[in-house]
C-alpha cells in the first residue's frame, strides 16, 4: 500500500475524551489519533499500511463537527443550522458504523450527511474522504479514487485525501497516478519523509509497468503486421528497423 505511516512505525495511539452530559447530544465523543500524513486529526479516518502497521492497531477514528450556528430569527439561518445538525449527526453515525466494521452502512450515513451538507464545503470534503476509506476497506478501489477526487476538488490541500487516493491507485497498479499524488503531498508538506519513501518505492514499479506496456504494444503491432503481410508470404521478421542516432527516427529495409 502507498499509505504513509507515522514516524514511529507502530504508533497509532488513541485517547478517549470523557463523555459529555447526556443533555449535550450535539457534541459527540471525540477521539484523537497520531496522524500519518503530517496533518491534524480533524478531517476523517486514517488507514494504516498493511505492510507497516499490524492489524490489531486499527484505524484512526475521529469525529470533527462543523461549529453550530448562532440562533437567529431568520428562516434561512435556521434552515442552515438544521441542515448542519443533520449533517453532523449523520456523519457521527457513519463514524460509529465504520468503527464497528460496518462499511456499507457507514457509506449510507456519509451519503446522508452529504445530502444535508449542501452548503458546507469542508464537511462535504470530509464525508467524501470518509467514503473513500470505506471503499478501501471493501476493496472497491475505483470508487475510492472517485471519492478522493471529489474531496480534493472541494479542498485542494486535503493531504489525507491525496494519501488515500495514492493507496487506491497503487492497489489498481496505477503507479504513475499514485506517484503524482505522493509528489503533491510533498508539495503541500515538504517535511513528509514518508511520502518520499513511497515515491522511491513506486518509481521502479512505474518504470517496470511502462516497459511491460511497451513490450505488449510492440507484440500486438507485430501480430497485426504479420496477419497482413502473411497474405503476401511475408512477415515482420523480413523487415529490419534502423534508428537514426541523430534524429531518433527509424528507417525500415526489407530483407
Task: Describe this structure as you would to a colleague.
Pfam families: TPR_1 (PF00515), TPR_8 (PF13181). Keywords: Coiled coil, TPR repeat. InterPro entries: TPR-like_helical_dom_sf (IPR011990), TPR_domain_protein (IPR052769), TPR_rpt (IPR019734). By secondary structure, this protein is mainly alpha-helical. The chain starts with 13 loop residues before the first strand and ends with a strand. The N terminus is likely disordered. It is elongated. The protein contains 7 helices and 4 strands; from the N terminus they run E-E-H-H-H-H-H-H-H-E-E. The protein has a single domain, classed as Serine Threonine Protein Phosphatase 5, Tetratricopeptide repeat, CATH 1.25.40.10. Strands 1-2 form a two-stranded antiparallel ribbon. Helix 3 packs parallel to helix 5 and helix 5 runs antiparallel to helix 6.
Concise overview:
Keywords: Coiled coil, TPR repeat. This protein is mainly α and 255 residues long.
Give short descriptive properties of this protein.
255 residues, mainly alpha, Serine Threonine Protein Phosphatase 5, Tetratricopeptide repeat, two-stranded antiparallel ribbon, 53% helix, elongated, disordered N terminus, TPR-like_helical_dom_sf, coiled coil, TPR_domain_protein, TPR_rpt, TPR repeat
Q: Structural class per helix/strand content? A: mainly alpha
CATH T-level fold name: Serine Threonine Protein Phosphatase 5, Tetratricopeptide repeat
Report the mean per-residue pLDDT as an integer: 74
CATH architecture: Alpha Horseshoe
Order of helices and strands: EEHHHHHHHEE
* Apparent shape: elongated
Keywords: Coiled coil, TPR repeat
Region (Disordered): 1-87
Biased composition (Basic and acidic residues): 75-87
TPR repeats: 125-158, 159-192
